[in-house]
Specification:
The protein contains 16 helices and eight strands. The chain is mainly α. The protein has three domains: 157 residues; 90 residues, no CATH class; 138 residues, Leucine-rich repeat, LRR (right-handed beta-alpha superhelix) (Alpha-Beta Horseshoe), CATH 3.80.10.
Length: 451
């Protein structure tokens, strides 16, 4: 047996193992050890390597046809070998992620089988190179096509099933035979009911990317009333008549960054009005037939909330410059550029002082979350923070701010959560913040106001 045959045999073993895992240990919606999830989450990082390398191979083969570039043709064999290795490792990490992180569903299954089939196709293409030029060319083209299909399924998992067509102009949709884009007045369910008109649109906006019929975590599907009331693998998520005892309420009310918070993975959270609307519906019995206007005092949510902040992308250069100069971090809150930035200082609290906050004022409109716990700021920084008009969450715990400086925060009309733990905040200073209608949570542990 020659060296190439031995390498082919060795490479086939993990591919066979991958198919065995998909057949005998498919993802079942259960969450498992954190270590498995840790390694599995390298899948989104690794997935770009086989894509980039595989697209390079046909370009190298075409360029290598020219006699003066024969060295490129020879190098294509090496690149194809790297493609094979990456195409084996990537779906193995994908299986580990889906198996350990609670994923399941038809879309997940199709994507995983596509990844395993792509690994097998890369193996066959690598094997054919140098033996049959025509068969190799056919296999290479077919493998690139399979990669595109598998990548499209991966995009659906990450960005939603309509991620390529949701913004397609109506004329183009008609040309390709796609259905019309549903309007805001046509949510799932009967629009004459409270569920159909007011609850379902919230679930569709925030939850279906991870809990649809095609892709669902923990066995939970939220696309229909029946699936919502059925719950997931851990049981019902709604206790009709008791919102506080409902798992759905607990999950959507957790602070950002909590282990069980929903929506997860950095996606925008529900607004206070949306949470209250769901709570009122559950408390009223969580009925599918309750009339649309039957619950007095229910917030009227007419559509998507306005952006949390302006698009920060035009200021990328300024952001990078200030990060380098001040030694702080400005991290996007999500993949949506209008969800704003998070100011993070936990790794270097001493660098975040009054002067640093003052230099951040030009970027204030883009900052929606400021993590300033245990930093060197004083009341002077609060005057600068007062200009951060879109600030939603502010952590000032264990800083040297005083009660006198807190009055500056009254200007933050969108502030929802304020952490004053371990500061000199007193009852009078906190009372002055009551005029802010958006402020929902104020943490006062270990302060004079705690009593």
């Amino acid at each position: 047996m020659n060296t190439r045959a031995r390498l082919a045999l060795v490479a086939s073993l993990p591919i066979v193992a991958l198919f065995c895992l998909l057949i005998f240990a498919p993802p079942d919606g259960l969450e498992r050890a954190s270590l498995a999830q840790f390694f599995g989450h390298f899948h989104p990082l690794a997935v770009h390597m086989p894509i980039a390398l595989l697209l390079l191979v046909p370009l190298m083969e075409i360029a290598g046809v020219n006699e003066r570039r024969r060295h490129i043709h020879a190098a294509a064999a090496f690149v194809l070998g790297l493609v094979l290795i990456a195409a084996i490792v990537t779906p193995l990490l994908g299986w580990l992620l889906a198996w350990s992180a609670g994923y399941e569903g038809a879309l997940v299954t199709r994507h995983m089988w596509g990844g395993a089939s792509l690994a097998a196709a890369c193996w066959l293409t690598w094997l054919l190179r140098g033996h049959s030029g025509r068969l190799y060319a056919i296999a290479l083209v077919a493998t690139v096509g399979l990669m595109a299909w598998t990548g499209y399924r991966g995009g659906q998992l990450a960005h939603g099933e309509e991620h390529l067509t949701q913004h397609m102009p109506q004329a183009l949709r008609s040309l390709f035979g796609l259905p019309a884009i549903p309007g805001d007045g046509a949510p799932d369910g009967d629009p004459a009911t409270f569920y159909g008109a007011r609850v379902a649109p919230i679930l569709r906006e925030h939850c279906l990317q991870c809990h649809s019929a095609e892709k669902h975590r923990g066995g939970l599907r939220l696309g229909t009333y029946a699936s919502l009331m059925h719950g997931g693998k851990d049981g019902p998520v709604i206790v009709a008549g008791n919102a506080m005892a409902s798992e759905l309420h607990r999950r959507i009310s957790l602070p950002a960054g909590a282990k069980d918070v929903m929506p997860a993975e950095g996606k925008p959270h529900l607004s206070a009005a949306e949470i209250r609307l769901l709570d009122l519906w559950i408390a009223a019995g969580a009925s599918a037939s309750l009339p649309r206007d039957a619950i007095a005092g229910a917030p009227h949510i007419m559509g998507p909330e306005p952006p949390s902040a302006p698009d920060y992308r035009p200021q990328q250069q300024q952001i990078a410059s200030l990060e380098a100069a001040l030694g702080i971090q400005l991290v996007p809150r999500s993949q949506v550029p209008t969800d704003g930035l998070i100011l993070r200082t936990a790794s270097f609290p001493a660098r975040a002082n009054d002067a640093a906050i003052a230099r951040l004022v030009p970027l204030g409109p883009f900052i929606v979350d400021a993590e300033l716990a245990r930093t060197a700021i004083t009341d002077a920084a609060l005057k600068s923070l007062a200009s951060f008009a879109n600030l939603r969450r502010l952590d000032l715990s264990y800083t040297a701010i005083t009660a006198d400086g807190l009055h500056a925060l009254v200007a933050l009309k969108r502030l929802e959560t304020l952490n004053l733990t371990g500061t000199a905040a007193n009852a009078a200073a906190v009372a002055g913040l009551r005029s802010n209608p958006a402020l929902e949570h104020v943490y006062l542990f270990q302060t004079p106001a705690a009593d």
